[in-house]
């Protein structure tokens, strides 16, 4: 009986640590996951109760923790990478367009300078006199 009573806080602590570790950062409230792990390890029963009461985000999202071999895991990663690559691709296109505009401006300036120097060095037609 005493073994069972002493095993309950250990089981609660292990369950709390497993839940903390498998949660995403967006599902943890008030502190970071690292601090919650430290609190649960240092204060097993109190830390576990605090985790379940105030640290865990209870939401109805479909972004649940999935196992290592679950195909939903790779789909979510591929979706995030596609979103990230789209935004970086758009940024790259904007940067290239700005570079093209700058090069066109520089070419126009060089052409106008060449015309200016050609006109200023050319004596032109002799005036009346």
Kindly describe this structure.
This protein has helices at residues 2-22, 33-42, 44-55, 71-121. It has 129 residues and is mainly α. The chain has a domain at 1-58.
Indicate the mean pLDDT.
82
Q: What is the CA-atom radius of gyration, in angstroms?
A: 33 Å
Proportion of residues in β-strands = under 5%
Helicity level: over 70%
| Count of beta strands | 0
Structural class: mainly alpha
Rounded to the nearest angstrom, the distance between the terminal CA atoms is: 126 Å
Largest sheet: none
Q: What is the H/E order?
A: HHHH
Quickly count the helices. 4
Q: Outline, from the CA principal axes?
A: rod-shaped
Low-confidence stretches: none
Can you give keywords for this protein?
129 residues, mainly alpha, 73% helix, rod-shaped
Please specify the SSE layout and strand pairing.
Elements: H1 2-22, H2 33-42, H3 44-55, H4 71-121
């Amino acid at each position: 009986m005493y073994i069972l009573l002493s095993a309950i806080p250990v089981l609660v602590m292990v369950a709390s640590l497993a839940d903390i570790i498998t949660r995403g950062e967006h599902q943890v409230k008030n502190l970071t996951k690292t601090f919650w792990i430290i609190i649960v390890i240092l204060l097993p029963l109190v830390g576990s109760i605090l985790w379940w009461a105030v640290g865990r985000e209870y939401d109805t999202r479909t972004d649940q923790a999935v196992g290592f071999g679950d195909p939903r895991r790779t789909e979510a990663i591929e979706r995030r990478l596609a979103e990230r690559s789209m935004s970086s691709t758009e940024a790259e296109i904007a940067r290239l367009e700005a570079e093209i505009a700058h090069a066109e401006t520089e070419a126009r300036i060089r052409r106008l300078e060449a015309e200016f120097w050609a006109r200023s060095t050319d004596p032109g037609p002799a005036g009346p006199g």
